[in-house]
Design brief:
Blueprint lengths: L1 H9 L7 E4 L2 E4 L3 H7 L11 H21 L16 H21 L16 H20 L3 H5 L17 H25 L30
Antiparallel strand pairs: 1-2
């Protein structure tokens, strides 16, 4: 297991699923990246930002609701086969959105601080951080020119992972799928704790390509 984690981290990721094609590693189900890597002619399209912006906002609201329900005694709980505590995961969901919109606007992508989540000792505090991110997200979205987001852009360094490459529309699509997958994980975790998620969003509320498996064949949480 340690060897698998080391291999995953060598590609710049800490979460699965990751598909490796030659020397190229692709996280999650990304039709465009997979198509390009396999040299297919499918012309996988990116979701239009007019659709993605409200979809991501809806997912973020649901994540915040779920985080508020998590019991504080589970801050350092880890799913089987995972080395990331629950407080790190929940903080990461909101931080990834913040970094994505910052990158779209400025081209600057600060590294994700590995220990930052340790400053939070209550899930309510992480939910409060999420509320700040959500507020900033909606303020940011209102100032966006959708035609500019749709326009192909010069990609940052290939050393950056896929969340920080491509057009603004592509990056929004990726972070929306990322947020939805983690939301579904949080629903699963709440149910493991015997807690019924509050106002959960059903899978039917999201595009089918966002709905990755939650549990691996060996019973681990993806």
């Amino acid at each position: 297991m340690a060897g698998a984690l080391n291999e995953l981290e060598s590609f710049g990721f800490r979460t699965v699923p990751v598909t490796v094609i030659g020397s190229r590693a692709i996280q999650g189900f990304n039709p465009k990246e997979l198509s390009d890597a396999l040299k297919l002619r499918t012309g996988a399209s990116i979701r239009d930002p007019a659709e993605t912006i409200p979809l991501l906002g809806k997912a973020l609201d649901a994540v915040q609701r779920a985080v508020k329900q998590l019991p504080d005694e589970k801050l350092d709980w880890k799913a089987a086969g995972r080395d990331r505590p629950l407080r790190d995961l929940t903080y990461h969901i909101f931080l990834r959105v913040r970094h994505t919109i910052l990158g779209i606007s400025t081209g600057a992508y600060p590294p994700e601080p590995k220990e930052a989540a340790r400053n939070y000792t209550k899930f309510q505090s992480i939910a409060d951080f999420g509320e700040e991110v959500i507020r900033d997200y909606w303020a940011w979205s209102k100032g966006q020119d959708l035609d500019v987001l749709r326009r192909p852009s010069r990609s940052p360094s290939d050393e950056l992972n896929q969340f920080f490459r491509g057009s603004g529309a592509e990056r929004l699509d990726l972070v929306a799928g990322h947020t939805v997958q983690h939301l579904r994980q949080l629903y699963w975790v709440l149910e493991q704790f015997g807690i019924k998620p509050k106002e959960p969003l059903p899978d039917s509320a999201f595009p089918s390509e966002y709905l990755l498996p939650l549990i691996s064949p060996t019973g681990e949480l993806f």
